[in-house]
Amino acid sequence: MSQKLSSSDHEITSQNPSVSVKDSSKNSQQAPFVDCVLEIVQSFSMDLKKEGVQKEVKSCHDLFCDINPQSSIEKMLAVQMVGTHRMILKMMRLAHDQVYPDIVNTYINSVTKLSRTFTSQMEALNRHRGKGQQKMTVEHVHVNAGGQAIIGTVQTDQEKNKATGRGHEKSEEQPHAEG
Predict the structure, then answer these.
(1) For the purposes of burial, counting CB atoms within 10 Å of the CB of 166, is it exposed (0-12), middle (13-18) or buried (19 or more)?
(2) Are 58 and 42 in contact (CB under 8 A)?
């Protein structure tokens, strides 16, 4: 079975077991992440022949490319993130179309849970990429007579200059607390 999707920019064809994408602006070049986008499309059981699906597939592709996964793990997370995002939007549309408060609440609760899931997925991706914020807790500080203690972030003058974009003034590498 073969499904084909084409728009002004991309043509996506799914054939068992191969996938091909043609980018009309670049003359038959493999578009990035097409296999992952088709995985998202298939997870929602979208018929590529239906009207309006081309726009949804392009949207999935754009979201996926914006995440810019660099490894297999990141690709898996990106597929999950785009799928979760699409489901959030779908649940919001369904909630909007309902007239019964109980059904609206059910959809809104699903949106809330999916939003938390999406946030967790973003945090997992950032941790995997090494962008997770690290926290250090100092519980005991002993300062002897004549000593000094600093509470806060400590930077050298050189680090401050880099952060503020100042010139290369000569410093004695004396650390200072941020103000």
Answers:
(1) exposed
(2) no
The answer, yes or no, to whether residue 75 has pLDDT greater than 60, is yes
CA 156/CA 173 separation, integer angstroms: 6
- How many domains is the chain built from? 2
Q: Which has the higher per-residue pLDDT, 179 or 93? A: 93
Range of the domain at 179: 149-179
Average pLDDT, the chain: 75
Q: Which residues contact 92 (CB under 8 A, 6 or more apart)?
A: 107, 111
What's the pLDDT score for residue 60?
84
Distance CA 82, CA 63 (A): 7
Q: Looking at the structure, tell me whether residues 34 and 108 fall in a common domain.
A: yes
Q: How far lies 160's CA from each of 153, 155, 178, in Å?
A: 11, 6, 9
Helix axis angle for 72-97 and 101-128, nearest 10°, is 160
